[in-house]
Specification:
The complex is a heterodimer of chains A (102) and B (869).
Chain A (H helix, E strand, L loop, with lengths): L4 H21 L3 H25 L5 H31 L13
Helix pairs in contact in A: 1-2, 2-3
Chain B lengths: L2 H25 L5 H32 L5 E13 L2 E11 L1 H24 L6 H20 L3 H19 L6 H32 L4 H6 L7 E4 L2 E5 H16 L8 H4 L5 H10 L4 H8 L1 H4 L3 H22 L5 H21 L3 H29 L13 H4 L1 H15 L5 H15 L8 H29 L28 H16 L14 H6 L17 H24 L8 H5 L1 H7 L4 H50 L4 H20 L5 E6 L2 E6 L6 E5 L16 E4 L8 E8 L3 E6 L7 E2 L21 E5 L4 E5 L5 E2 L10 E4 L4 E4 L2 E16 L5 E9 L12 E2 L4
Antiparallel strand pairs in B: 1-2, 3-4, 5-6, 6-8, 7-17, 9-10, 9-17, 11-12, 12-13, 13-15, 14-16, 16-17, 17-18, 18-19
Helix pairs in contact in B: 1-2, 1-4, 2-3, 2-4, 3-4, 3-10, 3-15, 3-20, 4-5, 5-6, 5-10, 6-8, 8-11, 8-13, 10-15, 11-15, 13-14, 13-19, 14-15, 14-18, 14-19, 15-17, 15-18, 15-20, 17-19, 17-20, 18-19, 18-22, 19-22
Classes of the chains: A mainly alpha (102), B alpha+beta (869).
């Protein structure tokens, strides 16, 4: 089987969809963070795949590294927020985290 | 001393009282009263000394040169650009025979009244404030008198109005007094606008603000005044009438006289200085100043004379029945001002100014005497003569000076008022030869003689009730000022600072009249000779005047005086005022008591409508601006803000849902291509450009035949092409209507007719304005491919041979015809279609048409009609 751009894009779409559905349906903040990682990595797959087909420069690959770095930072900040949330609310359920409004 | 000293002195005459006002205004309230008084009186005294020196020098100059004048140019204040050239507004002063006399009156009587006020206002807490205003008034009045041009004079004119307002409302704690101040100010403002308009008319016609230039070139103002399509009158008449409107405000004439009696709310010295001797005569001064202009307009002169005479009569009739001293004197002032305007209107300018001069003495003396009476009996505001009487014994100085002034104003021979009033009556009789219709002069004489009779009567009624008989408040121990109570039981005599000014003014009331001896006696008239050079003389009489006119004037004046005094003598000497009750009960008596109900008339005609307008504007403000524009907008924002807060749940996953929904919409948008195409006429061809996008591929049909030029997809997003006749998909008419601009009418390719809208054709396109008005219509003939234009009822100009016998034109591309004011050009229309495919394989087309006319559409050189098909 010949694996082309379409297959990569399909994989990325499926990954992104799983991430999005997970983000929307689960209430555990840790799982939501994982879902976000999933979506970011779906984007990374797309960037790498396009870079393979437009190889004049390496913008896609460079961007993928940026995304990885940003994702790492986001995970660090996100986990710190989760710990703070747990200290205040004694829970990691995101539907309890309504401090923005109440 | 040098000439330049006297010229400089003119500036200092104005600046000294101004300096006094500034010093007392800034530091007066911290200083001792004696110091305040010294500054106030000292500056005016210095100004008086300078005025006398300058005047004496002027008299000396006059010996050699009749048109002698002192002028001092300080600096150029402004320069206004007019079509005829720049007109400077100078700060410069001039003293000629007219302004010299007025300067002496203002500084001299002003000085006496300043001295009088030292005692009169001694116990008032606003002592320094009073003298600040009084000095400021003196400075403004001197500026008005000495100014060499109209704008500077207007500064003084407004300045005295301001001081009048400040001094009438001097005891502002009393709301009625404050209201009187406002009333005076507002009535004056109505007049001031007249002065401004008159001034602007003069400067646009004559081209100068300088009073001397206006007088010298007054004949230029004889050109007609054009208002729209009508020639109303000469510019001189219109300007004079507007200036006179200002005079009716400042000098209390019909219809703006009602403020002056109310102005008596101010302290009595103010009434004497501002509202009797100086400010209110400013109108007379203005007319005399511009006498060469006024005399050119018999219409304006007649209006001034008749208004003046009627004012004299009306005010005198009101004064007959008033019971407060100052009210009587106020109406008397209005009446005497009426005399002055009657003189000015009759062309007897010198007589008018003479009456200003004599009136300043006896009326100031009367007011100060009234003030002395009020001071003596502790009356505040005004004194009711029904509660006075017999003051001859208590206040001998006041009594004698008051009596002398009464004799003067009544016109008893050998007193000053007799001479000036005689001149006015003589002037009225002389004007029978000046006006087109002689009856104006006779009417003036009759009305003025009647008013003079009333003057003598009401002045002696006032005198007898105040000074003869017995003191009617004597029994009232512990009297207060309220109604129903009398005044102080023991009137006290005034000190020297009140008595001396009275004596000086009383003496003046006797002697100043000898400056202008009656014409009947053929004695030298110093006054008339002195003012000859500054005042205009009447043109030669239009008809023969009888020899006995001077004698008639004198006889009329004397008879009026005798009748008036005689009636007052029999009715009021040693009597009590109860005898007036029967008359006051009649309806005419009540009408007089109510001052002819003029205030009520104005209330009905002016004040109430303006109040309605104000209320209406108030409602607009309240319900439209405040509610609809302000409150409702705020509420709208509040409500929509509240609605948006409903969207905020504060739950992170709810925001996530919205975000994902947005992503889905974006993805949907990217699924399909979004084609757009634009064309531009370029070097005889058309360049088509399609919008670019990620992964787009294009397929073009530029010649509009419905088939793609190349079937394969390419990434060529712009195409340049030339169109030949077979590529045209239709025609358009480019209609140019100067100055409206350009419009493109697309014609239907199927051949349906399109009527050209009338508004594109400009004016007068019809062949027959009365008959049918069918606008032209155009269509495309599908067979020949030509544009068919039916002229219908329009004027059409076309190239030779283009039109057939029915007025039907057959036009090809590029042909131009003129229809009415519009130019119509036939232009072909081309069409291009592009199909766009994106990476997902979805395809969408876009179509655009272009008018092949290089002048269409300005910058882009093309106007696109139609859009996506």
């Amino acid at each position: 089987m010949d694996i082309g751009l379409g297959e990569y894009l399909a994989l990325a779409s499926i990954l992104f969809g799983i991430g999005a559905v997970g983000f929307l349906t689960r209430r555990n903040v840790l799982i939501q963070l994982m879902s976000i990682e999933l979506m970011l990595n779906a984007v990374n797959v797309v960037l790498i795949a396009f870079n393979r087909y437009l190889p004049e420069n390496h913008t896609g690959q460079v961007f993928a590294f940026f995304v990885i770095a940003v994702a790492a930072a986001e995970a660090a900040v996100g986990l710190a927020i989760v710990i703070s949330l747990f200290r205040v609310k004694k829970t990691v359920q995101s539907d309890q985290a309504d401090l923005l409004k109440h | 001393m040098e000439q330049v000293f006297y010229e400089r002195a003119l500036m200092w005459i104005v600046l000294l009282p101004l300096a006094g006002a500034i010093i007392n205004g800034l530091a007066g309230r911290f200083a001792h009263k004696k110091l305040v008084g010294a500054v106030a009186v000292g500056t005016v005294a210095l100004a008086f000394v300078l005025a006398v020196l300058a005047f004496v020098h002027l008299v000396g100059m006059k010996g050699g040169d009749d048109g002698a004048r002192l002028t001092h140019h300080v600096y150029e204040w402004l320069s206004l650009g007019f079509p005829r050239g720049d007109v400077p507004v100078n700060v410069s002063f001039v003293m000629d025979s007219l302004s010299g006399v007025m300067t002496l009156v203002v500084t001299g009587i002003g000085l006496l009244i300043h001295i009088y006020s030292l005692e009169y206002m001694e116990d008032d807490p606003g002592f320094a404030r009073f003298f600040t205003y009084l000095n400021l008034f003196t400075a403004s009045m001197l500026l008005l008198v000495l100014a060499s041009n109209m704008p500077l004079m207007f500064v003084g004119w407004e300045g005295v109005g301001l001081c009048s307002y400040l001094l009438i409302g001097f005891w502002w704690e009393n709301p009625a007094y404050a209201a009187a101040g406002k009333k005076a100010f507002i009535y004056n403002r109505v007049g001031d606008f007249g002065v401004l308009i008159g001034m602007f008319l003069l400067v646009t016609t004559i081209g100068s603000f300088e009073l001397a230039d206006i007088n010298a070139n007054a004949r230029e103002a004889l050109q007609p005044f054009v208002l729209g399509r009508w020639e109303v009158a000469s510019v001189a008449t219109v300007a004079c009438l507007f200036l006179f409107l200002g005079c009716t405000g400042k000098s209390a004439q019909i219809p703006l006289f009602v403020w002056l009696p109310d102005a008596m709310a101010g302290p009595t010295p103010v009434s004497a200085l501002i509202h009797a001797a100086t400010m209110v005569t400013a109108g007379v001064y203005l007319c005399a100043r511009l006498s060469s202009l006024f005399i050119l307009s018999p219409t304006a002169m007649a209006v001034i004379a008749i208004v003046g005479a009627l004012t004299a009569l009306l005010a005198a009739s009101i004064a007959l029945v008033q019971n407060e001293i100052k009210k009587i004197l106020a109406y008397s002032t209005v009446s005497q001002l009426g005399f002055m305007f009657a003189a000015v209107g009759a062309g007897a300018f010198a007589a008018g100014i003479f009456h200003v001069f004599t009136h300043a003495f006896f009326k100031a003396c009367l007011f100060l005497g009234a003030g002395a009476v009020m001071h003596a009996v502790h009356a505040h505001g005004d004194a009711d003569i029904r509660k006075l009487g017999g003051l001859r014994k208590h206040l001998p100085t006041v009594h004698w000076t008051f009596l002398v002034s009464c004799l003067a104003i009544a016109g008893v021979p050998l007193f000053s008022g007799f001479f000036s009033k005689d001149e006015i009556l003589y002037g009225a009789l002389l004007s029978t030869g000046y006006f087109e219709s002689a009856w104006i002069g006779w009417f003036l004489f009759a009305v003025l003689a009647l008013a003079a009779t009333m003057t003598a009567f009401y002045m002696f009624r006032l005198y007898f009730l105040t000074f003869t008989g017995s003191y009617r408040s004597a029994g009232e121990e512990g009297a207060s000022h309220g109604d129903g109570h009398g005044y102080a039981p023991h009137p006290h005599r005034p000190h020297g600072r009140i008595a001396w000014p009275l004596i000086v003014l009383g003496t003046g009331a006797v002697v100043v009249g000898y400056l202008g001896l009656p014409h009947a006696l053929h004695l030298p008239n110093v006054w008339g000779h002195w003012l000859e050079t500054t005042l205009a003389a009447l043109p030669p009489a239009k008809r023969e005047l009888p020899e006995w006119l001077p004698w008639a004037a004198m006889a009329g004046g004397t008879l009026a005086m005798l009748v008036g005094i005689g009636l007052a003598w029999t009715r009021y000497k040693d009597k009590t005022p109860e005898i007036d009750e029967a008359f006051a009960g009649t309806s005419f008596g009540r009408l007089l008591m109510d001052k002819w109900r003029v205030d009520e008339l104005y209330e009905l005609l002016v004040i109430r409508p303006s109040r309605w307008m104000a209320r209406f504007a108030g409602y607009i403000d309240k319900y439209f601006v405040d509610f609809l524009l302000t409150r409702a907008t705020a509420m709208g924002v509040q409500v929509s803000g509240w609605l948006f807060t409903r969207l905020q749940s504060g739950l992170v996953f709810a925001y996530g849902v919205v975000m994902v929904a947005g992503l889905v919409v974006l993805a949907w948008w990217f699924m399909y291509p979004h084609p757009e195409v634009e064309g531009a006429v370029q070097d005889g061809g058309v360049r088509w450009v399609a919008a670019r996008g990620l992964g787009y591929e294009y397929r073009w049909d530029v010649n509009g035949d419905g088939r793609f030029d190349v079937e394969e997809w390419t990434d060529q997003h712009d195409v340049t092409t030339r169109y030949e006749e077979q590529d045209y998909v239709g025609y358009a008419l480019v209609v140019e209507t100067p100055p409206r601009g350009q419009e493109v009418l697309r014609l239907d390719p199927e051949g349906r007719t399109r009527v050209i809208p009338e508004h594109l054709l400009g004016r007068g396109w019809e062949t027959d304005a009365e008959g049918n008005r069918r606008p032209p219509a155009a269509s495309v003939d599908p067979e020949s491919g030509k544009v068919v234009l039916r002229a219908n009822d329009a004027h059409v100009r076309a190239p030779a041979g283009a039109a057939d016998e029915d007025g039907v034109l057959r036009l090809s591309a590029g042909d131009t015809v003129q229809v009415g004011a519009a130019f119509m050009r036939v232009a072909p229309v081309a069409r291009a279609t592009v199909e766009v495919r994106n990476a997902f394989g979805n395809v969408r087309p876009a179509t655009e048409e272009i008018v092949l006319d290089p002048r269409v559409g300005g910058e882009r050189q093309a106007m696109l009609i139609g859009g996506d098909r």
